[in-house]
Design brief:
heterodimer, A: 437 residues, alpha+beta, OB fold (Dihydrolipoamide Acetyltransferase, E2P), Chloramphenicol Acetyltransferase, six-stranded mixed sheet, elongated, B: alpha/beta, five-stranded parallel sheet, 13 helices, globular
Chain lengths: 437, 453
């Protein structure tokens, strides 16, 4: 008559046990009282003797399995007995499935084991033998015990191995690590006996990129997408090159001061814009557009002023700028710039430009090169006004408010010489503003 | 006949004598040069004699108050000469101990004033000593204020007070720092009329200000007259101390004690011959305690860092370690400091005021009045306060005014050094009944979970 071997209850609080190894193979004889298997609970590791005599017909639950108490783990009987009924009873599982549970790796030869409490040697299949107490402690401390070398019998990982593996860390360092998100397993301790102290964690926190030093994804859409497309289109289409010139702004400063005294607010950018409009009238080729039919030269100036807005850039256009006085131009630019910043520009207020000015002087730039705002043929990049030592006509070094202008132009439309002449004209207007009268 | 050593230590105080022993322990052939007596200021003119006198005063006071404890003691009296003699015998015993320790460690001790001949050579007693490394540990002496009357008979510095064999009937103490408050405690316990004249707005300017104010109150209750914000102008014969405290005032005493700080002692040492940089008389050192001459180290008061015997000893150990090939840095962040007042005051780390400037803090406190052991000992004044960093629970500082405070501060210093947080301190089971329970209760109070208040 075949008998079930069940997971025994060892102690009041035991609810389940883990089979560490079978000491008898399927098909081998076993005597009552002979060591049959080793198991562990959360409190102890123990070798269990067989409660029955006979042949170990079936190992129902393999090594490493955790089984609730009283469930069938093996069947002992006489060879050839029908054990299907007992098998199907085991854990309420159909008999057919049960064998699958037993395909656990063959235990290493247990012949030498019966008398000994010795553990099986750690099998080469990656499974780890660890005492229940050590396992509990490892989980408590959050230690990955799979990488730890056991020092117990036959390599069993015991509690002391876990405690030794635990990186010694001061309570304060631990808290600082938690707060700063530092993984202490990668930190080398400099305290007594290699203990991790606060300064070690702080040093690691400075080196290790914290979560907020990761990358974030900004979707390429809306204004960003338009800018991206237009910039690359411009660089791919136009034959862009640039000229740079220094302008002595002494007289322009005087103009602004004169306006200021008359309680009229005027920016340097207004004066530059006005000079550019006038120079465009003098050199209409800079105010043109290359089309399939040819170069369309425009005899009106719609002046674009690049305005930085949140997360982008927009170029409102002052229509018919060439018909405006300096004060009218100033007022128009001011109004459009405000609208641009508030996002209230109408569609025809940022279209149809013929030439663009971009001023980054307020960011302290001396000079920079802009990309043409297509289909225009030129863009003027304006730097800051900086007090600079210059050599005057009398060979004296004097301090002058100097400003750098950089003209980017489309060489398909304009050649270097006329572009230079245009830029020189802008300079002349700014250095001798009365020419603008 | 010049003798060569691997290390020479100049000055046998708590910095120098400790450094010399440690050097010898580390296998460095060492000579210790002392111009007076081993033990330095601490043992001969500072910590030890003061505490011996204070203990005698405490015994006297306890006998006077014996009735309070149900004990009858008639005709309580003291003989100051005997008190002083006992102090001298304690000092002598301890000094013998140091002499023995130096001998046992194999340190050669030379008595005489050293002066640099060059960077590796010291002249002592018409002879020279050469050394690979030298530690300067010459300490400090009481500072003097340049005011009229400072040289009058009866105007004493701390050295002179400790050498007294009789007790004056009244004392004016100029300076309400640690030394001033300890002398005030001593004399007022002996029934002497004591006045303190302090320039700052409060006595004890370094400890936590809340505790300083409590001590001010306690001293005043004990009959000590305290003038703060008072600048001393002159001392007239008859020992009348004139000072300005919102107008001219004066206070008189049989003796005047000047306790206004200490000045570095480097006279005759000729440090300039060794290329050692100085700053306002103090020897400049780096965190390894090296001077501007890399083979010369300096430790103790003469470095102008923290003028405490135990800091000098700690510096001595660091310097010795570095001379023996180590690279230890001196840390000054966790240093206990004590006032042997009644009750005692002990502190470590930041004061609440300092901590609030740089951290967001949580403070736990517990009153001496609520502590059973303190009540048994007859003390109700004082408190323990612990200052912690809000998020990490780091112990930033602890300030104790309670009986045995000086013996208890070590617990908190150790917890801080081991980087324990307030949680560990709160979870540490403290023996009952002890004064040290106050520390645990204050730790609980950081989370407002104090059971006994």
């Amino acid at each position: 008559m075949a008998k079930k071997i069940i997971m025994p209850k060892q102690g009041l609080q035991m609810t389940e046990g883990t089979i560490i190894s079978w000491l008898v193979k399927e098909g081998e004889k076993v005597e009552k009282g002979q060591p049959l298997f080793e198991m562990e609970t959360d409190k102890l590791t123990i070798t269990m003797d067989s409660a029955e005599s006979g042949t170990l017909l079936k190992i129902v639950r393999g090594e490493g399995e955790t089984v609730p108490i009283t469930e069938t783990i093996a069947i002992v009987g006489e060879p050839g007995e029908d054990i299907s009924a007992l098998l199907s009873e085991a854990s309420g599982k159909p008999a057919a499935e049960a064998p699958a549970e037993t395909t656990a790796p063959e235990p290493a030869a247990p012949e030498a084991a019966p008398a000994a409490q010795a553990q099986e040697a750690a099998p080469a299949d990656g499974r780890v033998f660890i005492s229940p107490r050590a396992k509990m402690r490892a989980e408590e401390l959050g230690i990955d015990y799979k990488t730890i070398r056991g020092t117990g019998a036959d390599g069993l990982i015991v509690e002391r191995d876990i405690l030794a593996a635990k990186p010694a860390i001061t309570p304060l360092a631990k808290k600082v690590a938690e707060l700063s998100g530092v993984d202490v397993s990668a930190v080398t301790g400099t305290g007594a006996h290699g203990k991790i102290v606060r300064d070690d964690v702080l040093a690691a926190a400075r080196k290790a990129p914290a979560a907020d030093r990761d990358t974030t994804l900004v979707p390429l859409k809306g204004m960003r997408k338009v800018i991206a497309e237009r910039m690359v289109e411009s660089l791919h289409t136009a034959a862009q090159t640039s000229h740079r010139i220094s302008v002595d702004m002494t007289e322009a400063v005087k103009v602004r001061d004169a306006f200021k005294k008359a309680d009229k607010k005027l920016s340097y950018n207004d004066i530059v814009s006005y000079a550019v409009v006038r120079a465009l009238k003098d050199f209409p080729i800079m105010n043109s557009e290359l089309t399939d039919e040819g170069i369309v030269v425009k005899h009106y100036v719609n002046l674009g002023i690049a305005v930085a807005v949140e997360n982008g850039l927009i170029v409102p256009v002052v229509r018919d700028a060439d018909l405006m006085s300096l004060e009218e131009l100033s007022a128009a630019v001011k109004e459009l710039a405000e609208k641009a910043k508030n996002g209230t520009l109408g569609p025809d207020e940022y279209k149809g430009g013929t030439f663009t000015i971009s001023n980054l002087g307020m960011f302290g730039l001396d000079s920079f090169v802009a990309i043409i705002n297509r289909p225009e043929s030129g863009i003027l990049a304006v730097g800051r006004i900086a007090k600079t030592p210059v050599v005057n006509d009398n060979d004296e070094i004097v301090v002058r408010p100097m400003m750098e202008l950089t003209l980017t132009y489309d060489h398909r439309v304009v050649d270097g010489a006329p572009a230079a002449q245009f830029l020189a004209r802008v300079k002349a207007y700014l250095e001798q503003p009365y020419l603008l009268l | 006949m010049s003798k060569h050593y691997q290390a020479a230590v100049v000055g046998g105080g708590p910095g120098g004598y400790v450094a010399a022993i440690r050097l010898a322990q580390l296998g460095v052939k060492t000579v210790l040069i002392e111009k007076d007596k081993l033990g330095g200021t601490c043992l001969n003119r500072g910590c030890i004699p003061t505490k011996s006198l204070l203990h005698s005063a405490e015994v006297y006071k306890t006998v006077l108050e014996a009735e309070k404890y149900g004990v009858t003691a008639k005709d309580a009296a003291f003989d100051y000469a005997k008190i002083s003699a006992r102090k001298d015998s304690v000092v002598a015993k301890l000094r013998k101990g140091i002499e023995y320790l130096e001998k046992k460690a194999g340190v050669d001790v030379i008595y005489g004033a050293a002066s640099f001949v060059d960077a590796h050579t010291l002249a002592v007693n018409d002879d020279t000593v050469t050394a690979d490394n030298i530690i300067v540990a010459t300490g400090t002496a009481p500072a003097r204020i340049p005011i009229p009357g400072i040289d009058l008979p009866g105007v004493m510095d701390s050295d002179a007070v400790l050498a007294m064999t009789g007790c004056p009937k009244s004392v004016v103490i100029i300076g309400g720092g640690v030394i001033g408050v300890e002398f005030a405690t001593l004399f007022s316990a002996l029934g002497v009329k004591v006045s303190i004249v302090e320039m700052m707005d409060e006595i004890l300017p370094t400890p936590d200000q809340e505790i300083a104010a409590l001590m001010h109150k306690k001293l005043t209750q004990g009959g000590v007259e305290i003038f703060t914000g008072a600048k001393v102008e002159k001392i007239e014969p008859g020992l009348k101390v004139h000072f300005n405290q919102n107008g001219s005032k004066s206070v008189s005493g049989e003796a005047v004690v000047v306790a206004i700080g200490r000045r570095p002692v480097t006279d005759g040492l000729m440090l300039e011959k060794a290329g050692v940089s100085m700053n306002r008389g103090f020897v400049v050192v780096d965190e390894y305690l090296r001077t501007s001459a890399p083979h010369i180290y300096a430790i103790g008061d003469v470095t102008g860092k923290v003028q405490l015997a135990h800091v000098a000893s700690a510096q001595g150990l660091v310097a010795a370690h570095n001379i023996a090939g180590g690279t230890k840095k001196m840390r000054y962040d966790i240093i206990p400091s004590c006032v042997y007042s009644e009750p005692e005051i002990a502190s470590v780390g930041l004061t609440e005021e300092q901590a609030r400037k740089t951290h967001s803090v949580k403070v736990g406190r517990f009153s001496t009045a609520a502590n059973g052991r303190s009540m048994i000992m007859g003390e109700s004044a004082g408190l323990v306060k612990i200052i912690t960093e809000e998020k990490t629970g780091e112990i930033l500082g602890c300030h104790i005014m309670a009986p045995r405070a000086t013996d208890m501060i070590g617990e908190v210093a150790a917890a801080m050094r081991a980087e324990g947080t307030i949680e560990e301190l709160a979870d540490t089971i403290h023996a009952h009944p002890t004064v040290s329970e106050m520390i645990m209760e204050a730790a609980h109070d950081v989370e407002k979970l104090c059971v006994h208040q």
